[in-house]
């Protein structure tokens, strides 16, 4: 819930306004320096060149047919590619123009995320926007031709609707959640988990009917049920089309999907450490801020879990430790090459410990609340469910795939801090997150875009 505003002396209020504008300027700098430097004319590389650009080009003269949807070589429906191709008929199908559309989508997603932070956990919009813009696979990638960023925009819209409905029971929020969830699922089908968690919370709120602004019926009315089911219509369409969750042509690829316990455990550890890596400054500052209230038993459990995770990662993956690919893996490789395996393990342990600290703070907050208010449960449950689902079956995970998990991690940690987020140490921690992520983003952009 938003924090109450307190009256400030005129000088202090003016200084705070100027600081907010300074933060927004930093956000714009992080988002715009690559587009302004390159004019979005750098050559297409990797998935953009191999999959997404060719699929947009093939749909310039028509929208995808059912047969083309079924036989796609992508891991998802090419509906977004068809829609972007139709938009390109207005602006031209050159790579800079297509990236211009992607840039608009990314900027909208960031603005929506800032609103979500304010409404869902009372966090300052600038702080959340800065943390997202500093994440390398958003701040210096959102303008590339990928499906991750339009899917993230649809997801943010769905989450805004979910928060609006759970807190205020507004019909507009429910339908925004429904259509946002449908679009997110049609772009990247595994995002259906977010609509599933929301539907579960709505059902629980009707059965329990506690902690709500006004009484509600035990059985949801038909229009509520229809809105909750709508995203699953999109999932059902894909299941019927492919006889599974993935296109047949994509499932035929060797070595990408492995549905065994060892692969899944490695993926869970890798995604946890990957998210925790970028949140190390905030988690460390938060832990120092609360050090007097941290019990020795709790610290011991966190230490044992960290050591156990390190041991499991080494047993499953060897010195590589992770099956995620991106700047975190580059940092591990660089550390290992120049300082040896112990330093590599220490960096991995710090990243995993940051994630475990976040989980501990969420559990402590829920235990202290002693209530089942759906508005308070939404973000923690979405965070847990997305961690469990997004990594399932993947033997190779790219950092852009964990963008929703990182974005939720930022929000749930800020939600646990509440008004304490304005204290000096937590505030410095989030500044550290911005600087830490931005440094990685600059290195990534210089290398990939050949600046």
Structure characterization notes:
The chain has about 450 residues and is mostly helical. The chain has helices at about 10-40, 45-60, 65-70, 80-90, 95-120, 125-135, 135-140, 150-170, 170-185, 190-210, 220-240, 250, 260-280, 280-290, 295-315, 325-340, 340-370, 375-390, 405-415, 425-450, and strands spanning about 325, 395-400. The protein has a two-stranded parallel sheet. Helix 5 (about 95-120) runs parallel beside helix 8 and helix 8 (about 150-170) packs antiparallel against helix 9 (about 170-185). The model is unreliable at about 1-5 (pLDDT under 50).
Helix content: over 70%
| Class by SSE composition | mainly alpha
Q: Write down how many β-strands occur, each being a DSSP E stretch of 2 or more residues.
A: 2
Largest sheet: 2 strands, parallel
